Amino acid sequence: MQTYQPELEIKKAHDVRKLEPCQCGGLGMRPNMIKVQGKWWHGRCAILKFGIDAIAAMPAVASSGLRWSEIGDDAMKRLLNR
Q1: Closest CA relative to residue 77, chosen from 55, 45, 46
Q2: All structural domains of the chain with their residue ranges
């Protein structure tokens, strides 16, 4: 899997506490990531690894922080229409 590095929004020192490593090797902000099988993933990485059906089957609260710009139109529509 190729490393994905989204733009990090670090506005203050406290934000560094929210950083989590993704399984792709990049860093992400925990509120915008999803925890699958005990590991943190960028939304894009989780969808590539597990598929949109597996992510949509998770509780809505688990995927509520995923960003439209990161996962794309089709995946976001699928999550909103579950």
Answers
A1: 55
A2: 17-80
pTM: 0.80
The two tokens of residue 75 are 């995946």
Per-residue pLDDT of the chain in tens (82 residues, 90 and over written 9): 667 767 777 778 888 899 999 999 999 999 999 999 999 999 999 999 999 999 999 999 998 999 998 899 999 999 998 7
CB 22 within 8 A of CB 45: yes
User: Cα Rg for the chain, rounded, in angstroms?
Assistant: 12
Contacts of 40 by beta carbon, 8 Å cutoff, 6+ apart: 20, 21, 22, 23, 28, 30, 33, 34
Distance CA 55, CA 42 (A): 12
